[in-house]
Amino acid sequence: MKRKSNEVKQNMDKNQPDIALVPHRRKNILTGDWILVSPHRTRRPWQGEVSTVQTEQRNTYEPDCYLCPGNKRANGEINPAYQSTYVFTNDFSALLNDTPSGQKNVQDLLQMKAEKGICRVVNFSPRHDLTLAQMEENEIGNVIALWQQEFRSLGSLPYINYIQIFENKGSIMGNSNPHPHGQIWAQESIPMEPMKETKQFQSYYKKNKRGLLADYVKLELKLKERLVYENPSFVVLVPFWAVWPYETLIIPRRKLVSILELNAKERNEYASALSVLTKKYDKLFQTPFPYSAGLHQAPTDGTKHSEWHFHMHFYPPLLRSASVKKFMVGYEMLAEPQRDITPEYSARMLREL
Ligand SMILES: [Zn+2]
Ligand SMILES: [Zn+2]
């Protein structure tokens, strides 16, 4: 009986119009949010900003850069003459480790809670002029090793329950210093996005006894429509529910809850995936590609979190050239995110570069 109903369902699907070609909504299985896709709009004439490609020459060392080796930072400390990576506590931290605890609730209408945390800055390289795309794979491997070291030490602190590792690249993203660096914010609470994902991972794991992203990767490898790059340990793809035009996910094939579970081979292949993807991005519009990128990993709240599958998001804002970016305004602020070019189109563009 069951088999018959499956056959009927498939036949019904065959007679349906291809909804990928008409306006439709897609579900983000990681957050439970929905997005609107309007593929027919890619034919409309563009009368907005026109691209100008700027090539900027940068020095390997800048005397005024607070991240370059040997330079003085805002708090008066001198950076060591570091040769590879360098990590330090942010001189302008958004979270502080000595914040006293406390909360306030006025009639459930005004609610607040003190938040304790630590903000770290991770310099990827002593070279002021490089980006991840121009660094060697073994140098990117050193960055991953430092992320692991920080994740382990911050995560072992009793009051740290979540660690966000991220990079904001490019002045368009509000990054004022081009020196290759990222940040780590570690805190008491699990923030909104990872909390949504934790709930999605948990409900799928409970229902299916399998990992959400492991199943998703298997399906994408079979369909091959949204793949950008793969190696034996990692898959890079444009997610089915991507919001940003060239948004991608780097996902380990194995269900690892955090980067602490990577073996040496997997760490190298993670570095390869990062290198290939950032190089492809730079080629897309012939410009150092801006983005916000970051890892999502299991909370460090002392629970095992077998449901979790760590991954890395890339959210790049550029839409059609080095200077024309996507805006999240109007309908997107008030209703939900929307895109014109399909994730399948974006994946094909990135794959072929
Ligand atoms: Zn610098
Ligand atoms: Zn995520």
Descriptive report:
The structure is a single chain. By secondary structure, the protein is of the alpha+beta class. The chain is built from seven helices and 14 strands. The protein has a nine-stranded antiparallel beta sheet with strand order 3-6-8-7-12-13-11-10-9, sandwiched between helices. The longest helix is centred in the C-terminal third of the chain and has 21 residues, at 264-284. The relative contact order is 0.16. One zinc ion is lined by residues 30, 197, 296, 311, 313.
Summarize, please.
This protein has 353 residues and is an alpha+beta fold. Helices cover 27% and strands 19% of the residues. α2 (137-155) packs across α5.
Cα gyration radius (Å): 22 Å
Structural class: alpha+beta
How many individual helices?
7
Strand order in the largest sheet: 3-6-8-7-12-13-11-10-9
Q: Strand percentage, roughly?
A: 15-25%
The string of secondary-structure elements, in order, is HEEEEEEHEEHHEEEHEEHEH
**Could you give the distance between the termini?**
47 Å
Shape: globular
Which percent bin holds the helix content? 25-40%
Spans of at least 5 consecutive residues whose pLDDT stays below 50 are 4-12
What's the rounded overall pLDDT mean? 92
List ligands, each type once: zinc ion
Number of strands: 14
Describe the oligomeric state of these chains in a short phrase.
Answer: single chain
How is the main sheet built?
A: 9 strands, antiparallel
